[in-house]
Design brief:
This protein has 241 residues and is an alpha+beta fold. The protein has five helices and four strands, in the order H-H-E-H-H-E-E-E-H. The chain is 49% helix and 7% strand.
């Protein structure tokens, strides 16, 4: 019998009660096979091409995905850096403000102390200048108007108690004529006697009585006035201040 006249062999299960049973097998030629793959219990519902026991390998990201991930990482890094930088800046600002406030406070206190000290020095200097100016003016007045000594003598005599007796008015010999003329009425009313004394500086006088004395000499009167001004400047340059 030729091969073309042979009928093809079919896969027919063995008849019931056949001894072949489950041992029924047949060789299947390659040309009868189409798509096939080795079966494993864990390949149900999966890719038929996946080898047993291996996970499918992830697909490599595309260039666009790489660029997107890089951009996202840069943005996250920028935001983190910006947040940390702002926190550090705020902390520095608070620290600097606290330090600056403390330094400014100490500076203001130092300036106040120095200003008060300078103010005190200026007050002393102004008082000294005023006293020196007053002394110069008084000297000029005594030189230009020597007749003022008569007014000084009259005031000194009036300062003596009314009950005083034996009143003596001592003046410089050069001032004697002016006092005798300008204070004549006061001297006569109190019964005072006018005498010359070279130790009395011009412009002043000294009044003595049985109840006490009145020192109206220029140096004494000036010392009292200068002390009241807060700067005891002596009347004579050679004297110790």
């Amino acid at each position: 019998m030729s091969s073309s006249s042979r009928s093809p062999i079919r896969n027919v299960p063995p008849p019931p009660g056949s001894k072949a049973g489950n041992a029924y097998t047949r060789f299947i030629p390659r040309e009868e096979l189409q798509d096939f793959a080795a079966w494993a219990p864990d390949t149900f519902g999966g890719d038929g091409a996946t080898a047993p026991g291996r996970e499918p390998e992830p697909m490599a990201p595309t260039e666009a995905e790489w660029q997107a991930e890089i951009a996202a990482a840069r943005q996250a890094g920028y935001q983190d850096g910006y947040r940390d930088g702002m926190a550090a800046l705020e902390s520095f600002k608070q620290s600097f403000a606290s330090q600056a406030t403390s330094q400014v406070g100490r500076l203001v206190e130092s300036i106040d102390r120095e200003f008060l000290a300078l103010e005190g020095q200026m007050a002393v200097a102004v008082a000294a200048t005023a006293v020196r100016l007053a002394r110069q003016v008084l000297r000029s007045e005594l030189t230009l108007q020597p007749e003022l000594v008569a007014q000084v003598a009259a005031e000194a005599v009036n300062a003596v108690l009314l009950s005083a007796r034996q009143i003596i008015v001592q003046v410089n010999p050069q001032d004697l004529p002016m006092v005798a003329e300008g204070a004549a009425e006061v001297l006569a009313a109190r019964g005072a006697r006018l005498v010359a004394d070279a130790s009395i500086e011009r412009g002043g006088c000294r009044v003595e009585s049985d109840l006490g004395a009145v020192d109206a000499r220029i140096a004494s009167r000036w010392t009292q006035a200068a002390a009241a001004l807060g700067h005891p400047l002596p009347w004579t340059e050679g004297e110790t201040e």
